[in-house]
Amino acid sequence: MLAEYIQEHWDKDEFFGYQFLNGLNPMMIRRCSTLPVNFPVTDDMVKDSLRGSSLEQEMKKGNIFLSDYKMLDGLVGNVVNGRQQYLTAPLVLLYCNPQGMMLPIAIQLRQKPSKDNPIFLPTDSKGDWKLAKIFVRNAEFGVHEVDFHLLRTHLLAEVFTVATWRNLPSPHPLYKLLFPHIRYTLQINIMARNQLISEDGAITMYAGVGGESLKKLLKRATASLTYSALCLPDNISGRGLETVPRYYYRDDGMKLWNIINKFVAAFLTFYYQSDAHVQKDTELQRWISEIFTNGFLGRESSGIPTSFQTLKELIKFVTMVIFTASAQHATVNSGQFDFGGWMPNYPTALRKPPPNEKGQTTEDTILETLPDVSTTVNGMAVLRLLSKDSADHYPLGYFPENLYDEEVPRKLIEDFQKDLRGLSDLIEERNKKLELPYTYLNPKNVDNSVAI
Length: 452
Prior knowledge:
About 50% of the residues lie in helices and about 5% in strands. It has about 450 residues and is mainly alpha-helical. Strand 3 and strand 4 form a beta hairpin.
């Protein structure tokens, strides 16, 4: 079982690096060609990790990567069971070695460099390095759950759903296309809120990122959200990860994106014979206008279209909507208990501030920093709940109602389902050769829409 593997390997650098590519949030890491000015890593610090090479040389080769949690900068931890919790905003430098393994080589836990904000290294004491990685994993919890899970799947799916209900009548071709992907969105989101929000209004899941900090983090995430970040091909190229090895999220995700795009393109081309037909569809134009205005707060910097002028634009946007509600949600949701069931790998809160000097960390320090028993149990219970398959699981490509009388759409659905089965076969064959199978984007495991 993956959970057992994680319990045994959670503190290993190889697995720590693996999670940036194939864990719950494979969308933060990016290729690094220039070090951030606030992350003063020197060649002397990482010479052992780079086997005598320099940062400049490895950056030119495309082997250096960065994960920056600056979104958490300045946020104050929650108070849990009467005790203050602590947040950090780490910067993590990683190296893809000649064997294709992604390894951490430097960690700075706060954004502003200073004497009391040391850069931790694999060559430091075992306790220092382990604790630094624990703080990174706690930061990962906050950013993943609030930005990549809550905002980019559940809340966005709700935006698409409400805009569809309000602007597209049921005979509209786009309503029919999106119906399987929005059918249960509002019910699921309401159910999630009822189960995760306590009587005092606190979101029980976000133990260490509660209160005002949670609101600030969600606002920051919303303000920084872009269309290109939601479109997988643009996202991958924008982060420079087209060729990094062992990136199964990219490999499976791109194949799935292309299958969805092929289906959407054939479907919409059947109903819209020209760009002029798209431009003249007033219901469609109201739909995208409401998404831009209400969902993305009218931010032109988001890159979200305000209208559709071409069929190509429409196809790309609808592909993104379906991918977000189905595949992207499966990526960030389904493995939560797999990766978080062993709490030290995914701590929901930390009880001690980050170390401000090296050489002071003991095993007792680590145990005193990790969350208490009740916080751990609550976190595990919620992650278990969120990771379970829904009772009415409908895999991607399943159309529970017969919405189409025309022969062409029915044939397109059959072709779509055939393509999905083919991808499932490819992924399952590939996974037989992997120590850690990557299953989250196997179409058999992808829901049609967001699930709790």
